[in-house]
């Protein structure tokens, strides 16, 4: 979710809250989609409950992993 | 259910409005007050009401960074909801937050074409299309009429309403129409103008221009402890 955009002269700072799991590979996506011009930093914001659909998927993956290791 | 309760506690009800918008599409509203009296607080309450009704709000601040504007929303929402809502209130707040987008500019670099460009980027990419815009901190100097005309065209084209904060000064006496002298030349562009006046421990809300469904304006005050609108009888 985008919280806001802050105008800083020739730059714009976009502030957003993102699940950490969605951030893997973001660096490459950001660089390639902005021709290397954009950069980002991230910091921990808060813990939040995983949506039910995602929770079901995680449970399924864990169950699958357990099954494979037995 | 909780949303309905919060809408019932909303300042718009105190102003006599139930579900309809105060401003028409392309309409302008202004909140006039000295510094620190509660202009931003009042507009943030109107914004929260819109967000609860699933209407998107673009908040533009020319004074404060994104984090500070965000804090206004968090504080006022939790005051409005009461401190007892707990988890339910927090999840409701998270569900209405995507209806708000904060944009900040340095006051000297803010121009209508720049805003229009940013707004087009957001709407063309399907990120955000606001129904209401708040512009906090715009300087109402002699050249402002041109910008306001452009903003009116922009808001009409995009089906928006715009609310402004107008900073008044203690040393400037109001004109014969009760409006600040610097504001009178552009007052014809505004459908709604309210003024916040500090009186003793309260802040009184006076309607200077615009129509309300029932004459309740003289009873309205802003509670300075919570910065929420309250009926004078209930305080």
Terminal residue distance of chain B = 26 Å
- SSE order of chain B: HHEHEHHEHEHEEEEE
Number of helices of chain A: 2
Shape of chain A: elongated
Description:
The complex is a heterodimer of chains A (70) and B (235). Chain A has two helices and two strands; from the N terminus they run ββαα. By secondary structure, chain A is α+β, with helices and mostly antiparallel strands. Chain A is 37% helix and 19% strand. In chain A, strand 1 and strand 2 (11-16) form a beta hairpin. Chain A has one domain (2-69): Alpha-Beta Plaits. The mean pLDDT of chain A is 91. By secondary structure, chain B is an alpha/beta fold. Chain B has one domain (2-234): P-loop containing nucleotide triphosphate hydrolases (Rossmann fold, 3-Layer(aba) Sandwich). Chain B is built from seven helices and nine strands, in the order ααβαβααβαβαβββββ. Chain B has a nine-stranded mixed β-sheet, sandwiched between helices. In chain B, strand 4, helix 7 (144-157) and strand 5 (161-167) form a beta-alpha-beta unit. The two termini of chain B are 26 Å apart. The mean pLDDT of chain B is 83. The A-B interface holds A 1-9, 13, 15, 48 and B 59, 65-67, 69-70, 94, 97-98, 101-106, 109-110, 114, 118, 127-128. Strand 1 (2-8) of chain A pairs parallel with strand 3 (100-104) of chain B, so a sheet runs across the interface.
Using brief descriptors, characterize the structure shown:
heterodimer, A: 70 residues, alpha+beta, Alpha-Beta Plaits, two-stranded antiparallel sheet, 2 helices, 2 strands, B: 235 residues, alpha/beta, Rossmann fold, nine-stranded mixed beta sheet
